[in-house]
Amino acid sequence: TIGHIADQNLTPKARKMCSHYLGHSLAYYASWLDQWRYSPEYHHTARWHAVGVKDGKLIPAELVGDISIFRAPLTPDEHGVARMEQMLTALKDYRNMTDSAVAVNLKCLIHMVGDMHCPGHVFYDGQKQFEFKENGKNMRFHGYFDKAFPRFHKGKTADQFYDGYRRLTKAEIEELCKGDMESWVRAAEPTFRECYTLLSPTIDYKDLPEQNKTRIKEIADRLMVEAGYRLAEVMNRIFK
């Protein structure tokens, strides 16, 4: 869905260049990094899908993570936002890179921009992700938000979702896309934290107040749309 929204908002040049390097749409490669992350060739990318927040601040790339937050030490090279910034810096010189190197960097960015807009991919000190019950079955916080689209839009296509969502104006898009990867994660932090208050490890999802369920859907929908526009902005900046 995020990739599809981004596809609809590429500049003509960015669309042409993405097609040249990828041979497919952004939506086609949206889950590519998940498919390859545990292969021997790409196992080093397994921890790139998340970012940590400590004491209310994004953990700087030069610091290692706290094992209580990440379950395993986080090195600077495993910091999601830092890795994306490194790829963007490299892609400024895309004309002097091999086509395959450009393609791999683009495929990683397509997936990681979406991950940075998912509450299940941002980890906090003092707030561990939890499991809860959904109709009596165990559900993980992470998996719940990863599957937000089919949960709230069962039977819908990405086209139908995007066509039914209020399109942002040019001015709104420009405002939304100001800044960089880190500023986007920082801006969304209050929303990510709110998600922990809307779900409960002690109450079955079906028994949550309806306003909680409505708010969760609003957040999930908005974050998908924001990620789509920002992914397009990333590609448009690379191929300006």
Overall description:
Helices cover 53% and strands 7% of the residues. By secondary structure, it is mainly alpha-helical. The strands form 2 sheets. Strands 2-1-3 form a 3-stranded mixed β-sheet, covered by helices on one side. Strands 4-5 form a two-stranded antiparallel ribbon. Helix 2 packs across helix 12 and helix 6 packs antiparallel against helix 12.
Q: Could you tell me the strand content as a percent range? A: 5-15%
Mean pLDDT: 88
> Counting H and I runs of at least 4 residues, what is the number of helices?
12
Number of strands: 5
Strand arrangement, largest sheet?
A: 2-1-3
| Alpha-beta content class | mainly alpha
Please give the radius of gyration in angstroms: 18 Å
Sheet with the most strands, sense and barrel status: 3 strands, mixed
Morphology = globular
